[in-house]
Amino acid sequence: MVHFSCDLCGKALQAGEDHFVVKIEVFASADTPRLTEADLDEDHLEAVGQMLSELDDDELDDPAPATRAFRYDLCPACHKKFTHDPLNKDHAPKFLFSEN
Question: Is pTM beyond 0.70 here?
Answer without folding.
Answer: no
